[in-house]
Amino acid sequence: MQRRDFLKVVGVGAAMVVVQPSMVGQKLYASDGGMFKAYDKVQLMDADGNPILASNLVKEKNYVFNYPHVATPCFLLALPEAANKDVKLKSEDGEEYIWSGAVGKENNIVAFSAICSHQLTHVNPADSFISYVTKKEKTMAYTEGGVIVCGSHLSAFDPTNGAKALSGPAAEPLASIVIEHRDDDTLWAVAVLGPDKFHSYFKAYKPEFKKYFGGKRKAKKFVTVAAQTVPLTEYSKEIIKY
Ligand code: FES
After folding, report:
1. How far apart are CA 113 and CA 176, in angstroms?
2. From atom 4 of ligand 1, which residue's Cα is the shortest distance away?
3. At 238, is the secondary structure helix, strand, or coil?
4. Which helix or strand (DSSP H or E) is residue 207 part of?
5. 90 lines ligand 1 (CB under 6 A)
6. Going by CA atoms, what residue is nearest to atom 3 of ligand 1?
7. Ligand 1: does its nearest atom lie under 6 Å from the Cβ of 124?
8. Is residue 229 within 6 Å of ligand 1 at its C-beta?
9. Strands (DSSP E) along 4-48, which ranges?
């Protein structure tokens, strides 16, 4: 499937409102280009092919799915409390965008790219140096838990505020995955918002793509129909937290 669109948007919960350049207002993200990219709608399913239901997610547990490419990992999280809404964020090169917030009955379900915005550390089948650290856990990267931590150089990201960088060398948020929560409680990935790093990522990890996905071309394919969503403990053999 092809990437479908590059448009300015205002995200409102699960719904995305597309705005034309002439309608640019206080809620739009700043300029033309790649801050919002819509892809095919893909349903989040468990390893047995059953739909992931929002109400069944365990709070503060790291879940992983690949979207929009076969080899681009993302976190799915049910936060312990509601996320903030309409958070203004900025990419490293100054491009602004609005993260509309979480979905679900409790406004606490979020998804972000599991590729660090600093130097591309990411979740893979062998290990994970980046993950959500629960409120009760301690981390060397920040004063408190409840954050996504990249252990490579100790950057912390705030999942209640669109994965904004809180500490460490990361100069921009993790890209967010726009999730749709439907009336039947199912969850669907529909777009990517923010600095996604995919271009650099696909340039950097050729041997890894060969090992796990049969080559770079296969790794770059778009996920269609369904994305298998599993706990991080099932996705990665080793989880390293700092
Ligand atoms: S790669 Fe994540 S903090 Fe450096």
Report:
1. 6
2. 153
3. strand
4. helix 206-213
5. no
6. 153
7. no
8. no
9. 5-6, 8-12, 15-19, 36-45
Going by CA atoms, what residue is nearest to atom 1 of ligand 1?
119
Question: Tokens representing 172?
Answer: 């921009």
The Cα 150–Cα 167 span in angstroms is 10
Per-block mean pLDDT, blocks of 10 residues, the chain (242 long): 36 36 34 74 97 98 98 98 96 92 97 98 95 96 97 97 98 97 97 95 97 97 98 94 90
Angstrom distance (rounded) from CA 208 to CA 214? 9
Tokens at 43, concatenated? 């349903």
pLDDT of residue 173: 98
Q: How far apart are CA 168 and CA 154, in angstroms?
A: 5
Which domains can be identified in the chain, with CATH numbers?
5-239 (2.102.10.10)
**H or E element in which residue 177 lies:** strand 176-181
Amino acid at 106: E
Q: Which of 241, 242, 238 is nearest to 124 (CA)?
A: 238
Substitution site in 75, 112, 118 for ligand 1 pocket (most atoms within 8 Å of beta carbon) = 118
- Ligand 1 centroid, distance to 122 Cα (angstroms): 9
SS3 percent helix, strand, coil of the chain, rounded to 5, is 15, 40, 50
Q: Which tokens is 7 given?
A: 């448009």
